[in-house]
Every structure is written in C-alpha cells, then in structure tokens.
Predict the 3D structure of the following.
Amino acid sequence: MHKFVHLFKLGWAYKITKAVTLSYPPYQYTIEPTNQCNLGCDFCPQSDPEHEKLRPVGMLTSDNLQLFLERAKEAGSSNRNLNFTLDGEPFLNKEFISFIEMANRAGFFPRFATNGTMLDRDKIDRLIAAGPFLASIDFSSDLEIFEAIRGKPGHFAKLHENLLYLIEKSHTEPGVHLDIHDITSYAGYDPDRSLDRMRVLFPVNIPSRIKFDYRKFHSFCGHLKAKSDKSSYRLCPYPWIQMAIAHNGDCVACCRDTAGRSVLGNVFDDPIMTVWNNDKYRQFRQNLLDQRPNLNGACKDCDLPYADDPVRWKLKYMLHSLLGR
C-alpha cells in the first residue's frame, strides 16, 4: 500500500466516518524489547515500586520478533519505521542489537528510546554495524537535576561521553540518527532556556540527523497526577494509527499503556489484521467515539484527550506528523 493511500484511509476512518472496523493495517508499530529497566526516573511509571507487579517482566525473543516481522509484512503497512519501545530499557535485552539488524534486513527503519547508561563505545560500534537507526535519548543541561530525577551518580558524565561519541560517529556514519531531549523542565525550569544551555554542551557543526528538543511531560496513565481541564474532549487517534506490542505479543492500547491495562489481542497467536479488527479493538474505539474513555482501562487516567493544545488535534497537523514517522 502506498503511504499516501494509507494515510488517506486512516484520516477518512478517524476523522470522517469514525469507523471502528478498519480497512487498512496499523500505520505505526511499536514492539517492546523488555519491560525491565535499570532506572526509576521520577517522571516514569517505572519509579513506582509496584509497577513491575502489573505485568510479568520478560524479554522479546528473536524468534518472536521474526514472527512479528513476517506478520507485519503480510499485513502490508506502508510505513518503514519500527519503534522498539513501550516500557523498559531495550539494552537490558542482550539480543537488542541483533533486533536492529533484523529490522533493517526486513526493510524497516528501527527507532528506539534508551536512557543510554548501558552504552559504551563497543556497543555503539556494534549498533552502527547493525544498520541505520534513530535513537531517542534524554539528557539535561544540569548535572544535579539530571541525576536527581533520572540517573545515578556518574550517569551524567557517562551519558555525555556516549552522546559525544555517537555524534562523532555520525559524521562518517550516515545511518546514525539521534533525538536528544532535554528533561530539565520537569524540575520547573524554562524549557527553551534550558534547551539552549544543553545545546552548548555539544559541538556546533553536526549533521542535520542529530536533533535537539525538550521533553513534554503528560500523565499518560495517571502516574503524574496532573490536573487537566475535562471540559473539552478530543478523540485520541492512537487506536486508528498504532499497534503497540508487549514483549510477549500482547497488543496494548498504545505506546503509553506501559502497564498493559488494555490488552486487545496477541500478534504471536493471530495475524495482525485479525487482531486489529477483533471485538476488543472495535469496542475500544467505540468507547472513545462515545466519549467514554473511562470504560477503557488504558484511557481512564490519561490526560491526552484533554490536552490544551488544539493544534495537535487538527487532521493537517496529524498527517504532517505521521509523514515524519
């Protein structure tokens, strides 16, 4: 399926017909290497000592990833991007670098989020050899803030060294793409000013594939106890766009359902299109259309449908955003 045909069908079903049975496959896939993490960041559900009890801790296997890749090809998605993320730190899975190679070999462009603390020069070199990738890594303009809300003593310097090495390699390795996000605003600092301060920690002349931005925080599962104005409801697009898959093949509501509150099927048991249009998925979409997100386990505590940024809910903005993914 051509990407623009895919996006047209997606936009028509989500914005015009409000369909719950979809004629197209998921536009985005995210699959979880593991739900285990080596950190407990203040802004992440992993900081809750009870979090690991919500889902059994486990690892994606290469055999199951191969099965998923075959089923994704069978479903016929137009989008080459494959996100290796959901919950946990991917490099805790010892097979993760081979996952990057498998995804590239299958014709996908792998993307992943990592805290970067488990990287070293050897791993970075092996990662680059596995093929093109985009890594999303959080950093900060301030050592003390970073190690208070995210890392441990010594992690700021270690991560800074890793990022500098990745940037150095990016000059000769066109497959290296980085999104470096400043998280200092979580501690109450001005995000733009902090981003400027973080940017000076890195070289000036770097490839355009290396991007800097600041992280925007929201309470996707009620873990931040953020206040939101529920006077205006906006239809969440994720169930029309994305299939998020846990390490055991369970399809959860979206990439924000780290606790697996809404399990909608399993792609290791059934073909993707069978899961995508099963009773659970269709009811999940219908609950959102009926403005009853409280009936969906993953949605009842999420503040996204009430986000105070109306631009992001425009179809034009969504399509532009999807084209970049």
